[in-house]
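User: Run a structure prediction on this.
Assistant: Running it now.
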Amino acid sequence: QVQLEESGGGLVQAGGSLRLSCAGSGRTLSTYAMGWFRRAPGKEHEFVGAISWRGSTNYADSVKGRFTISRDNAKNTVYLQMNSLKPEDTAVYYCATGSSYEYTERYGYEHWGQGTQVTVSS
């Protein structure tokens, strides 16, 4: 069974940067596609982006050009680098394992972490 733990969230001013980490345990993440989602207060989960086991990436239009997903299989960790943050990026961010990085809906992902809060002040 895979366990995922996100970290790196916090409070940042608009225009700033954060790097989120998603550490896996119990099983290697190297054979999974990995997705990042976020959930703002009162809203549904929103796809942020995903990375294939080979390193191909797929991003939501709202973050394209600002966010970058990478992975370090040796560390069993996936990263979400967030630059040029905006107040509308405020949300709890989750990582999840999937079978394809092209999936953009929650049902395409199986194992989920508990999330990390990102707050962007204006």
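The chain is about 0% helix and 50% strand.
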